[in-house]
Amino acid sequence: MAVEMTVDADKAGRAAGTRGRLVAVARTLFAERGYTGASTEQLVERAGVTRGALYYHFRDKRDIFRAVFEQVEEEVNGQMTSAAMAEAAEPGRALDAGCRAFLDACLDPAVQRIALVEAPTVLGWPLWHEITSRHSFGLLLLGLESAIVAGDIDDQPVAALAHALLGALNEGALYIALADDRERARAEVGAVLSRLLGGLRPG
Prior knowledge:
This protein is mostly helical and 203 residues long. It has helices at 2-37, 40-47, 51-57, 61-85, 91-105, 109-123, 125-149, 158-178, 182-198.
């Protein structure tokens, strides 16, 4: 029994390693060439696996793109969480820090191309919106609720506010991604965000 469990664990480990390698290589390819320009032939060659291994883990190229997109969203969410936690003693500042971390993440060319430019088209807007909301909406909701309880933001319908803020962040991120001067665009969106959040404060 112990031997069988060890063999099963080894197989699971190898499978996870292969899947992780495919996602990592696909992320680089999609960032470099876009969804259309990246082929499954290039993917398996760079990853050093067979086509059978690719299709064991993913249905098709769109499926692996979704896995890459999910990974990017998780990383961005992690950056937002870390920035907010650094200011946790002051909920209003924590909310501001999390939003700014989101905009900073959008300066990454891979995030720009994969999450903002390609994903809505490749996955379709409903699925793109569902994934981005799943990763970011709960965090924004928690941040807004904490800021309201602390008195840093006027009491108001928090779910509606979270949806509105997420929409503003996504549109701001797309503005940054498509700008010729992305650093300038980031500064512009950051200034607008400060005014938006400032307008939510009491008084």
